[in-house]
């Protein structure tokens, strides 16, 4: 509820005040008119008394009168015409608006924070004017005159005679019966004689003399000499003087010229109430009061009344209207009191106090006593009402009847001397002088008498005032009898048909209830008073009821909003558009964003309508904008109507306002976060067999992981170009920018290359939209970047002015702007629009937004082909507002919410740069695993500047090769090599001994860190030139679909400071199918190293040492319909130490054929090519072809893919078994390394194959190669990559794990320190009959396989207990020394001569001896039994 400026008690006291009439002479009126005031107006600011008065009641009790105010008006003032009264109230409300800087009452109720007006001055002004305009009636005397001031000027010739004339005139008006107005309280009206003296020109002595005569004739208490106009010559126009009259005159003279011209005159002629016709026919209503003053049963016929003196025979109502029409408009600007000083103000204030205290209050006291005596004498009661018996107050009760049963005795008029009226008159007098206890008693008594007579108008009045008197009592306060007020209101409204009195009663009662915090009862009372007869009254009362709901102990927010909507509707019907708009805006605070979409749309629509009518296009557009932007639940027809209203508002405001600024349009919804920017030309389509590089397009989805992958590839190349360091100024190339990319830096674009901006637009409505002449808004600042130190900046230019009118020629010489003629959007459709800009100059560009014409679309045929442009459209814009990613780098960023900049729409236009396009010929989409295919790649420079520094890097460097620097690129064209092998081959029969080639790894390692440099003729690719190179591809080793990413890096031939390089991306999708799986194992042979003294006589394989290599090949291809069989055509090796020597397979299995799911095994002898300490770093390639054609494995492409196969597993290189940890601890680590080297080998096997496949009735020959890396003797290596199973979930460990144990070599590793070999004759002849013991010489060869000294122990005492050994061989003994302890140097070979003793013929196993070894310096390590070779069998025959 709005705050009141005064208390309820003060409000009620001011509503009922003593009335005093004024009758002035003509000269006296002239004296006051010098100050632009009449005499009543002169007194009005001083009518409230500042001091207390007192009187005594009939019981001689003192009654204090505080803060009394009197009402002084002219005697000829008549009640306003009903139409004028309604117009006056409407104008008062219209002129009272909330102050712009007024305090706001913020009420928090639950989740609502409502901003409500702190005061309602329009309601207070309405209430005050309504109560002051109440006409006097016969059933009550509160508005009747108690006294009359007779004012005569001292400048009169005979002032005493003028007093006599005025006295006679007053008597005639009151007692002749010819005048219905004014009404007088009592017959013996107090006459107060005032002599008005003008100090500026009158004779003061004469005035004093006349005043003495007056006191002698009328008494000193009934006359007064008032001196005014002390200022000589009046106040100047620019002089500042106090003007206390303006606030009262402005309140009373609220009729301005336009109101009377447009409203009051019409009301007087037609008795209508439509003072402000609405533009909308639906809002046009009448504010009609059915029970107006003209129809009041107690009001006399005004047309039959005689005129007052000076009225020139004109009716009072029309005269008042005409006076206000002529002078009302200028009242507000008139200077009042120009001849008065502050002393004059004090004299006037003193005069009013003298009149009240010495004249009016004694007069009222005397009349109260007289009325009390009359009532006592007539009723036969004792002394006074205070000593009355119960018979007076409680006896003779009237039977209670309902209001509906009572009859309205409208024709019943009490005579003036009727006791009932005398009691009411006495009650009113007591009420006016604040004697509320006696007033309540009298009202209570009169109420019963009136009800007995069924005088319902009189009874309702008594009930009303009895309730008010009970509330105002302070000595013995009574509970407020609200039922009295309810009965009075119902009687006024339903029985008496007088809505004015019912409204007054409701206004008083509601204020009393609100002061007692009974907001629910007050709201109910106010709502009951709403009706269709007066929209203005209903609007005001509904608004006050809404304030009651919000001020309850538990605020009823939704009821508040609902009744504010009802109030706004009634305000609108009453023509009060400002107040209607305010009510709807306050109610919107409750309905906004709560899911009440239909109600919110209605409120916003009404706000838009009212704002547009009040010439507030900004507010109207904002309201309609909310309807269109939110997800509306309205029907398509209603949404189309809303859209038309919105377009009409914008169209009208644009035509009436300035057209230099385009409005911000709400439709369609522009998702700025989803906006993407693409730099460069679109990808050229494939031509024939050529397949263009995929690069980056707007049709691709943004993938953050893929973007990071491209950045890593680019950094890899940039680091290589810049000597292994990525520059701090490095900025990754981003051809397409979106909300997922890093937009902290300004992107770089190239002049004469288009910039495409993709806008994501959504139509939230269920009606189609048509956007025409759509283009981008931009701002450009030219800069010359040729001067790298300080670029020269030019003047900033923009196309905003050209965008105002699509017919204006755009600035295409700076930035060519693409315009989309028509862009159709279906209902609720999300669609992207791509607009291009082509910069022709270098500088800084900024995209501001998009401009277009918004209109409704007419679908004639239900499709876009039948599209017709609507006549109603608005040209506007939508600015792009981008918010960067949240900052999370520093501590301050993490503790607060800060967002970085987003510069994706602020590109820097750099000088021209080369532009590369890449095409692929015969590039496959499906390959077998490890299959080799030859394709061609073409590089084309489509720019006008030369290109250099072309490099390529890939996520799969083992997938492709362009050949080494020395490889011959033959044949010269793809067509000439259609049926040729992709390998370099030499015709040769199947070989028994491998052909050896030594190759330096640097010849094929031209690509550093996976980056391959593309050879260009002369190092430069000129403008428009093309280069075609062969490209060999090898299928991935694992099956499935693989994405192979290529990044082509190139630079300008002349370095550019802004843009150092450019890149081109390509993604190839390869589907790999299974082919072959190769497993290889290396085993030790029986051959040991010989001493240097016997190298001349030993075989080559014995000279270098050898191993056995077992190669297991399996056909795991599942495509039975395609691939028929695989052929193993060649096996090659590559190592610095080892090489393939011979193939020891049976002669008939040279060419291995493997059908589906078949498996084969090959066995090879491997020999050393050089010692481990050889300084030569060249690799030895050994080829063993199994067919009639040798593939040179040491040349392109076989060697390229071998070197690009990737590093071997770390665990395999270190020779560590799974589950073991390596912890370097002192000498144990060095010993461990020495021991490991004994079993390590570095040998790579290349298995080359061919397959035959039928496709389109043609037989195709496929070729490929498999790589197997052998790292350890006895450890199987496989070419097929096993898929890693998902690791099981590991529980979190909160305790520290114990440190790993010291690394110790395993028993298997220690068993390879010494290699043993027994030399003996396979058969031996002995004559056992002659000699029973046979002794055979045996030589034990010991070879130290390590690079350190080894302590060896030979134990001949070993007796095998194995059952197998007992079955195979007999028992023999060693003669001589049975245990030896030796020390072998690094790589030393030593012979030990032994003798075996046999006692009978048979087959014996000599390999039962045991050899223990340990490193010489590792004393802590125990000896380990060394591995023996195969069983050493000897046959002893008896001769």
In short:
With 1439 residues, this protein is of the alpha+beta class. The longest helix is centred in the N-terminal third of the chain and has 38 residues, at 342-379.
Describe the 3D structure:
- The protein is of the alpha+beta class and 1439 residues long.
- The protein contains 33 helices and 57 strands.
- The strands form 12 sheets. Strands 12, 24, 26, 28, 30, 33, 38, 40, 42, 44 and 45 form an 11-stranded antiparallel β-sheet that branches. Strands 14, 16, 17, 19, 21, 22 and 23 form a 7-stranded mixed β-sheet that branches. Strands 10, 11, 13, 15, 18 and 20 form a 6-stranded antiparallel β-sheet that branches.
- The chain starts with 7 loop residues before the first helix and ends with a strand.
Which descriptors would you attach to this protein?
single chain; 1439 residues; alpha+beta; seven-stranded mixed β-sheet; elongated
Largest sheet at a glance? Answer: 11 strands, antiparallel
Number of strands: 57
Helix/sheet category? alpha+beta
Radius of gyration from the CA trace?
59 Å
**pLDDT below 50 for ≥5 consecutive residues: which ranges?**
253-331, 380-411, 860-868, 965-979, 1091-1104, 1208-1227, 1364-1369
Give the % helix.
25-40%
Number of helices: 33
- β-strand amount: 25-35%
Distance between the termini: 139 Å
Shape: elongated
What average pLDDT do the residues reach?
Answer: 80
């Amino acid at each position: 509820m709005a705050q009141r400026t005064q208390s309820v008690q003060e409000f009620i006291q001011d509503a009922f005040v003593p009335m005093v009439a004024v009758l002035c002479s003509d000269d006296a009126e002239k004296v006051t008119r010098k100050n632009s005031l009449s005499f009543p107006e002169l007194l009005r600011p001083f009518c409230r008394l500042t001091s207390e008065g007192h009187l005594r009641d009939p019981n001689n009790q003192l009654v204090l009168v505080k803060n009394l105010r009197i009402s002084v008006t002219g005697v000829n003032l008549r009640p306003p015409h009903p139409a004028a009264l309604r117009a006056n109230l409407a104008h008062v409300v219209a002129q009272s608006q909330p102050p712009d800087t007024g305090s706001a009452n913020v009420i928090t109720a639950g989740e609502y924070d409502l901003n409500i007006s702190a005061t309602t001055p329009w309601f207070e002004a309405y209430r005050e004017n309504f109560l002051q305009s109440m006409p006097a009636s016969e059933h009550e005397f509160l508005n009747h005159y108690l006294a009359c001031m007779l004012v005569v000027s001292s400048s009169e010739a005979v002032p005493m005679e003028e007093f006599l004339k005025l006295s006679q005139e007053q008597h005639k008006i009151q007692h002749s019966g010819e005048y219905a107005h004014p009404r007088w309280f009592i017959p013996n009206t107090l006459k107060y004689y005032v002599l008005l003296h003008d100090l500026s020109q009158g004779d003061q002595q004469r005035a004093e003399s006349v005043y003495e005569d007056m006191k002698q004739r009328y008494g000193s208490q009934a006359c007064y000499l008032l001196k005014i106009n002390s200022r000589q010559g009046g106040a100047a126009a620019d002089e500042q003087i106090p003007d206390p009259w303006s606030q009262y005159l402005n309140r009373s003279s609220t009729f301005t010229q336009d109101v009377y011209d447009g409203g009051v005159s019409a009301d007087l002629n037609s008795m209508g109430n439509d003072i402000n016709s609405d533009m909308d026919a639906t809002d046009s209503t009448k504010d009609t009061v059915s029970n107006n003053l003209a129809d009041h049963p107690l009001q006399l016929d005004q047309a039959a009344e005689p005129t007052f003196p000076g009225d020139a025979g004109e009716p009072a109502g029309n005269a008042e209207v005409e006076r206000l029409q002529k002078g009302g408009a200028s009242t507000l600007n008139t200077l009042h009191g120009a001849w008065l000083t502050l002393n004059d103000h004090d004299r006037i204030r003193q005069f009013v106090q003298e009149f009240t205290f010495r004249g009016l209050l004694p007069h009222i006291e005397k009349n109260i006593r007289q009325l009390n005596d009359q009532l006592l004498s007539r009723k036969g009661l004792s002394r006074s009402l205070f000593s009355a018996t119960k018979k007076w107050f409680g006896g003779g009760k009237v039977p209670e009847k309902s209001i509906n049963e009572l009859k309205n005795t409208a024709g019943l008029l009490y005579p003036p001397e009727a006791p009932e009226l005398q009691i009411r008159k006495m009650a009113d007098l007591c009420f006016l002088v604040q004697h509320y206890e006696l007033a309540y008693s009298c009202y209570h008594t009169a109420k019963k008498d009136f009800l007995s007579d069924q005088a319902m108008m009189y009874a309702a009045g008594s009930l009303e005032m009895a309730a008010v008197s009970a509330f105002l009592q302070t000595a013995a306060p009574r509970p407020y009898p609200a039922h009295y007020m309810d009965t009075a209101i119902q009687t006024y409204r339903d029985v008496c048909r007088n809505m004015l009195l019912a409204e007054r009663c409701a206004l008083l009662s509601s204020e009393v209830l609100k002061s007692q915090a009974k907001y629910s009862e007050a709201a109910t009372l106010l709502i009951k008073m709403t009706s269709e007869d007066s929209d203005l009254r209903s609007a005001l009362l509904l608004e006050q009821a809404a304030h009651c709901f919000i001020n309850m102990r538990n605020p009823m927010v939704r009821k508040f909003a609902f009744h504010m909507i009802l109030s706004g509707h009634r305000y609108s019907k009453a023509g009060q558009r400002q107040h209607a708009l305010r009510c709807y805006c306050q109610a919107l605070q409750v309905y906004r964003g709560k899911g009440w979409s239909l109600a919110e749309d209605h409120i916003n629509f009404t706000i838009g309508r009212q704002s547009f009518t009040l010439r507030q296009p900004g507010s109207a557009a904002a309201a309609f904008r909310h309807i269109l932007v939110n997800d509306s639940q309205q029907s398509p027809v209603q949404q189309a109507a809303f859209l038309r209203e919105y377009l009409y508002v914008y169209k009208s405001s644009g035509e009436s306002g300035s057209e230099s600024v385009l409005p911000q349009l709400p439709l369609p919804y522009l998702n700025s976060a989803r906006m993407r920017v693409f730099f460069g030309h679109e990808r050229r389509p494939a031509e024939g067999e050529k397949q263009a590089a995929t690069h980056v397009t707007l049709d691709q989805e943004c993938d953050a992981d893929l973007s990071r992958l491209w950045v890593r590839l680019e950094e890899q190349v940039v680091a290589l170009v810049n000597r292994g360091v990525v520059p701090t100024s490095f900025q990754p190339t981003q051809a397409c920018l979106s909300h997922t990319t890093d937009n902290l830096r300004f992107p770089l674009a190239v002049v004469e290359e288009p910039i495409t901006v993709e806008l994501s637009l959504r139509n939230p409505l269920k009606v189609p939209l048509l956007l025409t002449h759509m283009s981008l808004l931009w701002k450009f600042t030219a800069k010359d970047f040729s001067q790298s130190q300080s670029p020269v900046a030019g003047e900033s230019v923009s196309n905003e002015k050209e965008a105002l009118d699509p017919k204006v020629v755009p600035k295409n010489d700076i930035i060519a702007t693409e315009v989309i003629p028509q862009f159709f959007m279906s209902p609720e459709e999300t669609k992207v629009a791509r607009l291009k800009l082509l910069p022709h100059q270098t500088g800084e560009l900024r995209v501001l937004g998009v401009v277009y014409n918004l209109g409704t679309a007419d679908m004639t045929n239900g499709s876009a082909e039948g599209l017709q442009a609507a006549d109603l459209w608005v040209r506007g814009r939508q600015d792009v507002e981008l918010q960067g990613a949240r900052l999370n780098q520093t501590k301050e960023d993490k503790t607060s919410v800060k967002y970085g900049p987003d510069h994706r729409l602020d590109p820097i236009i750099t000088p021209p740069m080369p532009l590369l396009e890449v095409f692929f010929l015969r590039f496959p989409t499906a390959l077998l695993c490890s299959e080799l295919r030859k394709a061609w790649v073409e590089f084309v420079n489509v720019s006008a500047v030369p290109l250099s520094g072309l490099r390529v890097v890939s996520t799969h460097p083992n997938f492709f090769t362009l050949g080494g620097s020395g490889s011959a690129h033959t044949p010269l064209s793809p067509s000439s090599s259609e049926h040729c092998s992709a390998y370099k081959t030499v015709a040769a029969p199947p070989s028994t001994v491998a052909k050896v080639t030594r190759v330096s790894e640097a010849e094929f390692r031209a690509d550093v860190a996976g980056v391959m440099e593309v050879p260009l003729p002369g190092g430069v690719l000129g403008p428009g030139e093309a280069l075609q190179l062969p490209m060999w591809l090898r299928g991935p080793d694992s099956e499935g679909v693989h994405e192979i990413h290529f990044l082509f890096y190139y630079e300008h031939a002349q370095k550019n400071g802004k843009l150092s390089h450019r890149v081109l991306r390509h993604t190839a999708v390869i589907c790999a199918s299974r082919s072959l799986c190769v497993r290889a194992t290396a085993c030790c042979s029986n051959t040991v190293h010989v001493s240097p003294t016997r190298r001349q006589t030993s075989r080559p394989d014995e000279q270098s040492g050898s191993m056995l290599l077992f190669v297991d090949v399996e056909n795991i291809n599942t495509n039975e319909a395609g691939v028929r069989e695989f052929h193993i055509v060649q096996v090659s090796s590559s190592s610095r130490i080892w090489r393939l020597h011979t193939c020891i397979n049976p002669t008939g299995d040279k060419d291995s054929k493997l059908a589906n799911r078949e498996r084969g095994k090959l066995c090879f002898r491997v020999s050393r090519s050089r010692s481990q300490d050889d300084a030569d770093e060249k690799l030895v390639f050994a080829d063993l072809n199994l067919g009639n054609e040798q593939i040179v494995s040491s040349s392109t492409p076989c060697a390229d893919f071998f070197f690009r196969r990737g590093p071997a597993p770390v665990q395999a290189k270190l020779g560590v078994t799974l589950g073991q940890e390596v912890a370097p601890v002192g000498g144990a680590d060095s010993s461990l390394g020495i021991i490991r080297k004994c079993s390590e080998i570095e040998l790579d096997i290349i298995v080359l194959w061919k397959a035959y496949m039928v496709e389109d009735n043609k037989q195709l020959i496929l070729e490929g190669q498999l790589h197997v890396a052998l790292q350890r003797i006895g450890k199987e290596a496989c070419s097929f990559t096993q898929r890693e199973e998902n690791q099981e979930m590991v529980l979190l460990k909160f305790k520290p794990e114990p440190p790993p144990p010291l690394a110790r070599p395993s028993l298997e590793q220690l068993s390879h320190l010494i290699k043993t070999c027994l030399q003996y004759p396979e058969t031996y002849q002995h004559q056992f009959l002659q000699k029973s013991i046979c002794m055979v010489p045996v030589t034990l060869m010991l070879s130290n396989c390590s690079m350190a000294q080894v302590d060896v122990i030979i134990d001949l005492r070993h007796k095998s207990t194995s059952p197998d050994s007992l079955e195979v061989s007999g028992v023999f003994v060693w003669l001589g020394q049975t245990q030896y302890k030796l020390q072998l140097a690094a790589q030393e070979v030593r012979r030990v001569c032994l003798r075996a003793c046999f006692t009978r013929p048979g087959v014996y196993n000599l390999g039962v001896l045991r050899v223990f070894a340990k490193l010489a310096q590792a004393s802590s390590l125990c000896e380990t039994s060394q591995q023996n070779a195969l069983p050493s069998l000897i046959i002893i025959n008896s001769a």
